[in-house]
Amino acid sequence: MNPISRAILVIVLVCGLPRDGAPADLKFVLIKREVVESRLKSFSRNDTERESILKTMFGEAGCAEHVSEFQVKHVKQPDLICVLPGASQDVIFVGAHFDHVDAGDGVVDNWSGASLLPSLYQGLRSNPTRHTFVFICFSGEEKGERGSEAYVDGMSKEDAARSVAMINLDTLGLGPTAVWLSHADPQLASKLAAVAEALKLPISGVNVEQVGSSDSEQFARRKIPRITIHSLTQKTLPILHSSRDKLAAMQLDDYYSSYHLLAAYLTYLDESLGSPAMIDAQTSK
After folding, report:
1. pLDDT digit string, tens, across residues 180-225
2. Residue 102 in contact with residue 46, Cβ under 8 Å?
3. CB 20 within 8 A of CB 192
4. What is the pLDDT, as a whole number, of residue 21?
5. How far apart are CA 158 and CA 136, in angstroms?
6. For residues 254 and 261, what is the distance between their CA atoms, to the nearest angstrom?
7. Distance between CA atoms of residues 204 and 24, nearest Å
């Protein structure tokens, strides 16, 4: 996360989240906890090595044929992109930045998000998807969201029109799952709350617009619905950009709970987002 001030966070209880109907009979694949934690623990303090580790993890998850790099001006490391082709060209983005500041090890901010992407991809690829999923590990977020800015600037009007959602992961595992609710698309927030309720997993709204920004805001410029999922509270905020950002700061039960929720959420979005015509066409096959 890219802090811009130290203002007090606004806490919104989960009862304030809008809801649609809870998903019924939602089937999704979970990667074993030891694999998810092993990927978290594989961090490096060198951003170039981080990009290389993520590329290896995507390959191990099955994305070797669909992984690519997107060069970013004024940033040494490229964005790393893994594509999961779907039945349609409508795209759901799932992103997290992998760069970090010099203080601490950058495990929380944001290896916690980036290292989840291969596991989320691995679970989704087990079954055909309606949407094409694009997983992006962004570079240069700590330098002003340069990686996401460059990627979004490179999208054509057609690309933006086919983009139905951007799910951004930033700073997970400091506690239970939270949402930057004031900067979340209401439909995406509603669906996340519905999944959390169905799975009996914790979720709350913690607004961070006066504390920082994140890569999701670049997608908002192109009117792409977005949501940022994190774990910050007023108590844990000082860990960011400090020597306390280490593996020891992670609450591993909460981290796997966030992964569990996200794995189900992406499956639910794939089933429920999109035009009725697209959904009907897939149902009739």
Report:
1. 999 999 999 999 999 999 999 999 999 987 677 899 999 999 999 9
2. no
3. no
4. 60
5. 19
6. 10
7. 22
Cα-Cα-Cα-Cα dihedral sign, residues 178, 260, 168, 35: positive
pTM of the model: 0.91
Judge contact between 58 and 116, C-beta under 8 A. Answer: no
**In this structure, what is the dihedral angle of CA atoms 121, 126, 127, 128, given to the nearest 10 degrees?**
60
| pLDDT surpassing 90 at residue 8 | no
Query: What confidence tens digit (pLDDT) does each residue in 72-119 have?
Result: 999 999 999 999 999 999 999 999 999 999 999 999 999 999 999 999
Secondary structure letter of residue 108 according to DSSP: I
CA dihedral 142, 139, 256, 121 (to 10 degrees): 160
Nearest to residue 111, comparing CAs of 61, 174, 25, 67?
174
User: What are the Cα distances from residue 148, in Å, to 9, 73, 97, 216?
Assistant: 24, 11, 9, 8
Give the chain's domains with CATH numbers: 2-275 (3.40.630.10)
Strand ranges of the sheet holding 204-207, from the earlier edge strand across to the other edge: 10-12, 204-207, 178-179, 226-230, 163-169, 91-97, 132-138, 79-84, 67-70
3 state DSSP class of 85: coil
- Asked if 133 contacts 124 with a C-beta cutoff of 8 angstroms, the reply is yes
Q: For residue 49, what are the contacts with CB-CB under 8 A and spacing of at least 6?
A: none
